[in-house]
Amino acid sequence: MSELDELYQSVILDHNKSPRNFRKLAEASAHAEGRNPLCGDVYDVWVRLDGDLIQDVSFEGQGCAISKASASMMTQAIKGKTIAEARALFDRFHQVVTGTATEALPGKLEVFRGVSAFPIRVKCATLSWHAMKAALENRER
Amino acid sequence: MTPLAVPPPRESRTGRSGPVWDVARVRADFPILQRSIRGHPLVYLDSAATAQKPRQVIEAVTRYYETGNANVHRGVHALSQEATTEYERVRHLAARFFNAADPSEIIYTAGTTASLNLVAQSYGGSVLQPGDEILVSEMEHHSNIIPWHLVAERTGAVIRSIPVMESGGLDLGELEQRLGTRTRIVAVTHASNVMGAINPINAIAAMAHEVGAVVVVDGAQSAPHLRVDLQAIDCDFFACSGHKLYGPTGIGLLYGKRALLEAMPPWQGGGGMIRGVQIDRSSYAAPPERFEAGTPPIAEVVGLGAALDYVSGWDWDALVGYEQELAAEATTALAGVPGLRILGEGADRVSVLSFTLEGVHPHDAGTVLDTLGIAVRAGHHCAQPLMRRFGVTATLRASFGAYSTAAELGSLVDGLRQVRKVFG
């Protein structure tokens, strides 16, 4: 597979076109905005918690295919996880997109490994994840 | 005055049947053009961000460090004298290249941004009173906007805009309306870093001078593409960067009319800008030294000198004709890509243009092009007010320099068709 095909796999193009959990969340327990001032991409992430459990998560916003697909798949990946599990997953995701981990990511998230060939796009892939992490931290304060 | 229909500036048009530009010969001087990127020959269409450097510049900087390195205006020794001679020779060269009335009107700075901040802080800071107006065009780069915000906050001056028309040109009728007795400064770019649109500085200066305002021109994008004649365009200040003119980074120029510079206070204090210093006060040197505190970027000045020597050897009529033709071909060829929209399509422009592709984010398109070895810029180009004016958050920008070819334009168009294939 070429670098290009690896980056823009059909699953990423699909999530870009039809993002999942793309809505404002009613009765959210936490919210944060992720903004990349370099490119103008901006996402809102909402989380509803039951104790330590992420009951529901959603997002809205605009940006490139990488950032939007990543946000969409992030919401699917952390729904039903605990806060600690979501954070641990972000750490692993970050290592994979920066090319510092070889261990496969769960499910379809593995498609983001292609980002590691394009360091400038790491910020796109992690934008909504940072917002998710910030939302969880806001809530704890 | 009926400035609505101002003819395109003289320096922008040479016609298509002019002298021939030998692009192959020029390309041979630029070592980096031999590089391949991700298995493809480099197609460098980002000269508006920074131009590549000819061997002549690279070698001049190396030679200076290997055989001529010394501080300027300081020592009595031979090396220092040589460095000082070269440092001042380049000032003369720059004055001649841009046709300033006198070399003392040329100040060395770190780049266009530093030049504009210098004017805003020193000139703006000393003349602006609360309620005075600064007119800033909607197509400015942030570096010709934010310095005015900073000085307006300090002085109580007010910023007003000069609108951009759908064609990409400045609305000179509106400019005339908004010029008034409170207008002190008109800040305008010579050529848009986003659309390439050329502004008729001469006409703008005439209008501004009628109400007693000065015109501050961002020349970062015009200096590499047009034969700039400062006395002819009659602006009061002109800022440009060496690195966009095939020279090194870290060196720029500020031109200011002598009488204005003489009345301006220093911008930064330090060595080399004084007449005399006591512990509690000092008096300052005349321009340009007054504005050049501290050890300047000497190697970068040497490199800029090599760049000016190099481009002075060019046939500029041939270059301008060649680049304008490339820009015209680009406009036509890009229009053939489905869903592509050019910003300010009707503008008279230098060889810089921006566009959007329907349904594709510019960063995704830029990455696809990168996998084909094609370097373009994607983003807001530090021109958010202009992005807002055209209702976009970002664009792709292709910019062509003296070494760019029609074949490279072809690669770009093919690449954009590839982008369409990936994103549907």
Explained architecture:
The complex is a heterodimer of chains A (141) and B (424). Chain A is of the alpha+beta class and 141 residues long. In chain A, 43% of the residues lie in helices and 19% in strands. Chain A has five helices and three strands, in the order ααβββααα. In chain A, a hairpin with a 2-residue loop joins strand 2 and strand 3 (53-62). Chain A is globular. The model of chain A has no long low-confidence stretch (mean pLDDT 93). Chain B has 424 residues and is an alpha/beta fold. Chain B is built from 14 helices and 17 strands. In chain B, strand 8, helix 8 and strand 9 form a beta-alpha-beta unit. In chain B, helix 3 (78-97) packs across helix 10 (298-312). The longest helix of chain B is centred in the N-terminal third of the chain and has 20 residues, at 78-97. Chain B is globular. Chain B starts with 22 loop residues before the first helix and ends with a helix. Classes of the chains: A alpha+beta (141), B alpha/beta (424). The A-B interface holds A 2-4, 7-8, 13, 38-40, 62-66, 118, 121, 124 and B 38, 360-364, 367-368, 370-371, 378-380, 384, 387, 393-394, 422-424.
